[in-house]
TrEMBL record:
Cofactor mode of binding and number, as noted: Binds 1 Mg(2+) ion per subunit.
Cellular-component GO terms for this entry: cytoplasm
Protein name (Swiss-Prot/TrEMBL): Adenylosuccinate synthetase
Binding site for Mg(2+): D13, G40
């Protein structure tokens, strides 16, 4: 049976959580393989909203195993709160259904302090981070000075790691605070040790060797669903650098971030809104700063699930989607929030850019060039019908069908899933990726 990766095809916030929740019915294991609690995946089931930040979006299904891979940077306090909240609501009844990699790196208080202080120091050049400490935690990881989940379970080793790291942290914070004429924060090693040892004990029942577990599931023929965070254009290597996140968001990292070989991945489904949004700084060719952009934001409830920040909104960008198809190896697209476009008399899709007087159809590699491009649009007729009750493709208004088919032509892959509302049931699944 195929194993499937669900990946964001834009700048994040595409609705990956809803699609993962929907597809979990057909999987046995759901794996989160990168990012941290800077990602918020919103699920609506039976009208009840659930926002998850670290636990995979399959957790609302009983009997499914949810896995947090080694590629995730983990804030243990956030994770413990998430576990407790789910248990209070009747989910995660069996602790064996959550597994956390002992090799996942941990976010400490100093990571958050560095994140916010550095962002403040950047001023007008701020990237737009969430301030959750994600970047500094990944920085420590690649500098080989990070602290992992396994270290939380060994107080002696944890004490040693904290004592090794704190002098350098204090020095950098003193410099950043001096430049801002602020008093540097206190970091008490004893308190950090006590707090994180206690958090480690809370998480101990869930910690294990994720690579070994997943390898066994592959050998047994289990269906595995890999859940990406953020989106392709926020990938640290393949996104609009430096306005990106600090991890690899593309599908190839599903193997690295979970401890499996690339042959374990069979299919990749990209998730795209029927329009485009992004949060934070950086180029956004199809951004609308007029009443139409305001309408998309209001009707689409475009505010960050993690930060509450208003999202920048614009027309669908086919150049971005073609790029996502290429770097992820997408076999299909799920198109979300098609219902948000209802009531708009005409719609535009960007299929190319103009740069220095020339028409280009591929994404520029330099973000400064991307910031200078002029989007070239084609106009399609809109529709007035509400889509909430639609459950088959044939039930869509003719102009909505035309819009979906044009997206397929522009991207070169089929649209196999269409979301027409926030709830799990408000979805048209044209092809199940777990079936041949």
């Amino acid at each position: 049976m195929p194993n499937v990766v669900v990946i964001g095809a834009q700048w994040g916030d595409e609705g990956k959580g809803k699609v993962v929740d929907l597809l979990t019915e057909h999987a046995q294991v759901v794996v989160r393989f990168q990012g941290g609690n800077n990602a918020g995946h919103t699920l609506v089931v039976g009208g009840q909203k659930t926002v998850l930040h670290l636990i995979p979006s399959g957790i609302l299904h009983q009997g499914k195993t949810c896995v947090i891979g080694n590629g995730v940077v983990l804030d243990p306090a956030v994770l413990v709160k998430e576990i407790d909240t789910l248990k209070e609501r009747g989910f995660l009844k069996d602790d064996a259904h959550l597994l956390i990699s002992d090799n996942a790196h941990v976010i400490f208080p100093w990571h958050k302090l560095l994140d916010s202080s550095r962002e403040k120091a950047r001023g007008v050049s701020a990237i737009g981070t969430t301030g959750r400490g994600i970047g500094p935690a990944y920085e420590d990881k690649v500098a080989r000075r990070g602290i992992r989940v396994r270290d939380l379970l060994n107080p002696e080793r944890l004490r040693k790691r904290i004592d090794e790291r704190l002098p350098g942290i204090r020095e950098e914070l003193r410099e950043l605070c001096a430049a801002a004429s602020e008093t540097p924060p206190e970091l008490d090693a004893d308190k950090v040790l006590a707090d994180f040892t206690a958090l480690g004990e809370r998480l101990r029942p869930y910690v294990g060797d994720v690579s070994l577990y997943l390898s066994g599931q592959v050998q047994r023929g289990a269906r595995i669903l890999f859940e990406g965070a953020q989106g392709t254009l926020l990938d640290v290597d393949h996104g609009t650098y430096p306005f990106v996140t600090s991890s690899n968001c593309v599908a190839g990292n599903a193997a690295v971030g979970s401890g499996l070989g690339p042959t374990a991945i069979d299919r990749v489904m990209g998730i795209s809104k029927a329009y485009t949004t992004r949060v934070g700084g950086g180029p956004f060719p199809t951004e609308l700063t007029d009443e139409q952009g305001d309408r998309l934001r209001k009707v689409g409830d475009e505010f960050g699930a993690t930060t509450g920040r208003p999202r920048r909104c614009g027309w669908l960008d086919g150049v971005v989607l073609r790029y996502a198809v290429r770097v992820n190896g997408l076999y299909s697209l799920a198109l979300t929030k098609l219902d948000v476009l209802s009531g708009m008399k005409s719609l535009q899709i960007c299929n190319a850019y103009e740069l220095d007087g020339k028409r280009i159809t591929e994404l520029p590699g330099d973000y400064e060039d991307l910031a200078r491009v002029k989007p070239l649009y084609e106009t399609l007729p809109g529709w007035d019908d509400k889509l909430a009750g639609v459950r088959t493709f044939d039930e869509l208004p003719e102009n909505a069908k035309r819009y979906v088919r044009r997206v397929e032509e522009i991207c070169g892959v089929p649209v196999t899933c269409i979301s027409v509302g926030a709830d799990r049931g408000e979805t048209v699944l044209l092809q199940n990726p777990f079936r041949s």
